[in-house]
Amino acid sequence: MTGLSHTQNQSLKSFNTFGFDVVALQYLPIESPEDLPVLFQAESFKKQPFGILGGGSNITFTQDFQGLLLHNKILGKKIIDQSNDTILVEFGGGENWHETVLYTLENGWGGLENLSLIPGTVGACPIQNIGAYGVEIKDCFHSLTAFHIPSGEFHVLNKEACGFGYRDSVFKREKKGQYFITAVQFRLSTHPEIRTQYGDIQATLDGWGIAEPSIRDISNAVIHIRQSKLPNPAEIGNCGSFFKNPVVSSDIIPALLAQYPDLKTFPAGEGFTKVPAGWLIEKGGWKGYRRDNIGVHAKQALVLVNYGGGTGAQIIALAKEIQADIFQKFGIELEMEVNAW
Ligand SMILES: Cc1cc2nc3c(=O)[nH]c(=O)nc-3n(C[C@H](O)[C@H](O)[C@H](O)COP(=O)(O)OP(=O)(O)OC[C@H]3O[C@@H](n4cnc5c(N)ncnc54)[C@H](O)[C@@H]3O)c2cc1C
């Protein structure tokens, strides 16, 4: 092929958090950005489909991967610029996300603490503009460096060029499949703003008797809450939230509230309202549903799970049934957050 050493029939079981037992017909770890132009110029490469894998925490493999799977292993951390209150830092796309967050905390740099314990890699964080506990990556994102596959050149994309939205970016839409993200640059703060308003963060800190929390305390609280609420993929296969929270026309909310007074809604811009997908799935009667080796988690209706030995095709079939049922019951379309391959 190119002199870059690839493996055939590589098992992906430990490379996807659902733990699906599939293989990649060809598999190549990418350790350096310089490998990419060499690879994409090779004639043998142009003939086959390819995919980019990070931590496999947002992919449902429905079958063996029929092509060359490029596994992002590009590491690196560097300070680009430092001013009084902020620091511009770059992390290699293959760096583990949570370890990167911990590294920023060790250095006293604030901004990423609410995003602690999200699985995956730095290179994948812009793809769906990862978010949790009132913060999205776009809040401290500065730019990213990516190999642009159609032109064979490296591009630097700023925040505007990434078109971030709720669990969304240009990389899921018009630029899908065009970029291999090799590094991400973040603007972090050395005098961080502490964000405790969302979810149970404040209550957790109160319970611990912490009145003036540091960014490390926020991270610890987020880790504690996530561990108590979300199933650990090391114990039970899953991809976190399987569906996005639907954003619907506010016109339909009064009728829903009349029927379901316990419905919690969130404003989502003029004329639109966000409805929790987990609530819809629970009200639809799916929470704890199990079929063979797959199902809907018993405590977290938004999380589809593989109890072991299940397949991605089974998960997608279940997801489609849930989507159809929720649409029939509530007139609301659920969109998958997880990528089906
Ligand atoms: C238990 C659990 C909890 C989770 N909680 C959250 C949460 O709170 N908030 C949230 O937003 N997400 C959450 N997720 C989803 C997931 O962790 C994120 O979407 C994460 O960013 C995926 O990273 P990854 O490296 O695993 O990407 P992968 O799953 O490997 O890939 C996801 C997509 O990105 C593409 N991709 C990956 N790397 C690159 C690259 N370098 N260049 C171009 N394309 C690339 C892939 O081709 C694929 O389309 C959770 C998942 C789990 C399992």
Q: If classified by CATH, what would the architecture of the largest domain be?
A: 2-Layer Sandwich
Shape label: globular
Task: Write out the strand line-up for the largest beta sheet, numbering strands in chain order.
Answer: 6-7-12-10-11
Q: Helix share of residues? A: 10-25%
Radius of gyration, Cα only, in angstroms?
Answer: 21 Å
At the fold tier of CATH, the topology name of the largest domain is: Uridine Diphospho-n-acetylenolpyruvylglucosamine Reductase, domain 3
Can you lay out the helices and strands and say which pair or pack?
Blueprint lengths: L6 E5 L11 E8 L4 H7 L1 H4 L3 E4 L5 E2 L4 E8 L4 E6 L3 E7 L4 H10 L24 E2 L2 E2 L4 E8 L4 E6 H4 L16 E11 L11 H7 L7 H15 L7 E2 L8 E3 L3 H7 L6 E2 L4 E3 L2 H7 L6 E2 L2 E3 L7 E3 L5 H19 L8 E2 L1
Parallel strand pairs: 2-5, 3-5, 4-20
Antiparallel strand pairs: 1-2, 6-7, 7-12, 8-9, 10-11, 10-12, 13-19, 14-16, 15-16, 17-18, 18-19
The structure holds flavin-adenine dinucleotide (FAD).
How would you describe this structure in keywords?
9 helices; Uridine Diphospho-n-acetylenolpyruvylglucosamine Reductase, domain 3; Uridine Diphospho-n-acetylenolpyruvylglucosamine Reductase, domain 1; Uridine Diphospho-n-acetylenolpyruvylglucosamine Reductase, domain 2; 20 strands; globular; 4-stranded mixed β-sheet; 3 domains; alpha+beta; binds flavin-adenine dinucleotide; 341 residues
Describe this structure in words.
The protein is of the alpha+beta class and 341 residues long. It has three domains: 7-72, Uridine Diphospho-n-acetylenolpyruvylglucosamine Reductase, domain 2; 77-229, Uridine Diphospho-n-acetylenolpyruvylglucosamine Reductase, domain 3 (2-Layer Sandwich); 237-340, UDP-N-acetylenolpyruvoylglucosamine reductase, C-terminal domain (Uridine Diphospho-n-acetylenolpyruvylglucosamine Reductase, domain 1, Alpha-Beta Complex), CATH 3.90.78.10. The protein has helices spanning 35-41, 43-46, 97-106, 159-162, 201-207, 215-229, 253-259, 277-283, 312-330; strands at 7-11, 23-30, 50-53, 59-60, 65-72, 77-82, 86-92, 131-132, 135-136, 141-148, 153-158, 179-189, 237-238, 247-249, 266-267, 272-274, 290-291, 294-296, 304-306, 339-340. It has a five-stranded antiparallel beta sheet with strand order 6-7-12-10-11. The protein has a four-stranded mixed beta sheet with strand order 1-2-5-3, with no helix packed on it. The mean pLDDT is 95. Flavin-adenine dinucleotide is lined by residues 17, 51-59, 72, 93, 118-121, 123-125, 127-128, 130-132, 179-181, 230, 233, 238-240, 339. Residues 17, 51-59, 72, 93, 118-121, 123-125, 127-128, 130-132, 179-181, 230, 233, 238-240, 339 line the site of flavin-adenine dinucleotide.
